[in-house]
Amino acid sequence: MKSIKANHSTIHFNQYCYPALNKHIKENNFSKIFILVDENTHTHCLANFLARLETNLVIEIIEIEAGEAHKTIDTCSGVWNTLSELDADRKSLLINVGGGVVTDLGGFVASTFKRGIAYINVPTSLLAMVDASVGGKTGVDLGYLKNQIGVISTPHLVLIDSTFLKTLPENQMRSGLAEMLKHGLISDEKYWNKFKDLSTLTIEELDGLIYESVIIKKEVVEQDPFEEGLRKTLNFGHTLGHAIESYFLSNPDKKELLHGEAIVVGMILASYISTQLVGFPRKTTDEIKKLLLAHYPKVTISKSEYQNIIDLLKYDKKNNHGNINFVLLKHIGKPQTDCLVADDIIIDAFDFYSS
């Protein structure tokens, strides 16, 4: 698959990843290489990555704890201190090998350490390949509130090696697939239709779908890098999805949801709200619900929890002037941004999801 230029970064795929990485290291006068991993990618991915790396530079490994609960400023402080203790300087290179937590946090660490050092992302989860790989969003959570602290910053390279997907459990694959389904709903009905039968999906076909998904996001981001308008469409399902994810993260009685699991709920809710407010066909909403729930277990959300989740909407990053702004669908591939939604319609949407 042909490499993709995305603003000031280049995304390479599979067999093109490591020649591009080694060439980039040779052509730049880096002083040291630091590789950020979590416990899982240290165990399952690091050895394979190091075997492909060709350099005489000093390489230091920094490991963080795995999981969204550790996507915090405290974790950043630990990485910043480690970089400092290991004599990282402005010409150091940080390579983030991991899922979205590692690439988001690692990008933020690199963008702020000594006012910015070079970094490369090597996404190892499906979610990170199709979502975190493009757009330059970096950052961490503020308590249980998603992605409240961060900057937009571009990695030098992104390396998408789909062999890493063999290390993922099924629920992590489903989590990434949710973002790909979202890309279809907001941009391309033909792409969406490719997901209607996933039972025969091969690795080769998945590679092609990943490539298409990256292009969809790249084209949106290039037109609106700082989320002034069009880029907001990438948040379809995320307004309520993030609130649900934060609520489950903050509640010790709840099992933590993966990002994609929460976004699937958010997309079903947003589809229903779209039907109520902007004329999205009810038949299509029913089809979306049926398809998504065929692949994702239904999340139990009681009526007594609806308001707690609604209260978290005020922290959504798309909000302005006190308004909570939703992305809705007029048709598949035709999103509408900055939609205001009354609480009673949100409650009806929860009832629709749970029914």
Automatic annotation (TrEMBL):
It comes from Gelatiniphilus marinus. Keywords: Cobalt, Lyase, Metal-binding, NAD, Nucleotide-binding, Zinc. InterPro entries: Dehydroquinate_synthase, DHQ_synth_AroB, DHQ_synth_fam, DHQS/DOIS_N, DHQS_C. GO terms for molecular function: 3-dehydroquinate synthase activity. This is 3-dehydroquinate synthase. Transmembrane segments: none annotated. It holds the Pfam family DHQS_C. Signal peptide: none annotated. Gene3D superfamilies: 3.40.50.1970, Dehydroquinate synthase-like - alpha domain. Catalyzes the conversion of 3-deoxy-D-arabino-heptulosonate 7-phosphate (DAHP) to dehydroquinate (DHQ). Its cofactor is Co(2+); NAD(+).
